[in-house]
Input
Amino acid sequence: MTPAENGDRQIRNTRHPLGVRITAGLLCAASVVLGPLGYLRAIAAGEGSAAEWYTLSFSASVGLPLLAAAIATVAGDRRAALWSLATVVWPVVYVIAVHVLLAG
Output
């Protein structure tokens, strides 16, 4: 017998898949924008602050998609988690693109 049939209050599902996907999308969009910006700042920075910019760039590029994947996984949204994990490949793409554009 379910709780509702037993006279108890009905259990409501509080997950919101659209909200989870919006959150994951915003985190991944931030990583797509902030990663290359931080990397370009690291290349342009002097010896004193380049390490900090590389660290921030890597943190934004990899950490934010992993956070989005963790949020989506906990919420039970496999598709959003998969797309978030696919965004982790983005640093390879923009590092190659930046060096090709700066060399040419």
